[in-house]
Write a structure and sequence with these properties.
Layout (H helix, E strand, L loop, with lengths): L1 H13 L3 H19 L5 H17 L3 H28 L1 H6 L24 E4 L6 E6 L2 E7 L9 E8 L2 E6 L2
Parallel strand pairs: 3-5
Antiparallel strand pairs: 1-2, 1-4, 2-3, 4-5
């Protein structure tokens, strides 16, 4: 039995032609492209398709096709394990993993903080329907009314701030 399997494997690898080798290598290359440059599965799907076509062109029997698929899965698993190990602890981790962070304590902020303006009075410079421009202590700001239109020249008060959103209401 062992000699039959060995003979089958040697026949399998002896029958691999240049086209099959090119299909295998191109399929593997496309799988690696998909790993490092995600593209909606186009490269990975094409790579898998090329590997399957290469296996079907090479295998002479269903048993050979199954053996080739198992060998291919084993090699891909080992390669994926090596890549993941390198990504966690090896040279690849230095390129893939961000070591620093942009913290608010270090002066980084994605939006300006307008909470100090809460309660300030100003004037609507444009029609607020509901968004527009208001002036507070000589500073022009983009503001949003609480829902109703506010005419230009109306006195307004800042009642809420959330990130860059400044909510105002008319002063009665």
């Amino acid at each position: 039995m062992n000699t039959v399997v060995y003979a089958g494997l040697t026949d399998l690898f002896a029958d691999i032609g240049t086209l099959q080798i090119v299909l295998f290598l191109l399929g593997l290359a496309l799988l690696f492209v998909e790993i490092f440059i995600p593209g909606f599965g186009i490269a990975g799907g094409s790579g898998i398709l090329l590997l399957i076509v290469g296996i079907l062109m090479t295998a002479q029997t269903p048993l050979q096709a199954v053996v080739m698929i198992l060998i291919l899965l084993l090699l891909l698993s080992l390669l994926l394990f090596a890549i993941l190990h390198s990504a966690k602890k090896g040279k690849l981790s230095k390129k893939l993993i961000l070591k620093s962070a942009s913290k608010r304590e270090d002066g980084y902020s994605s939006t300006s903080d307008h909470s100090a303006l809460l309660g300030k009075d100003g004037i609507a410079l444009s029609l607020l329907r509901p968004a527009g421009i208001g002036e507070f202590d000589g500073q022009r700001l983009d503001v949003v009314s609480e829902g109703r239109f506010i005419e230009p020249g109306t006195k307004i008060r800042i009642v809420e701030t959330a990130g860059s959103r400044i909510v105002v209401k008319p002063i009665e």
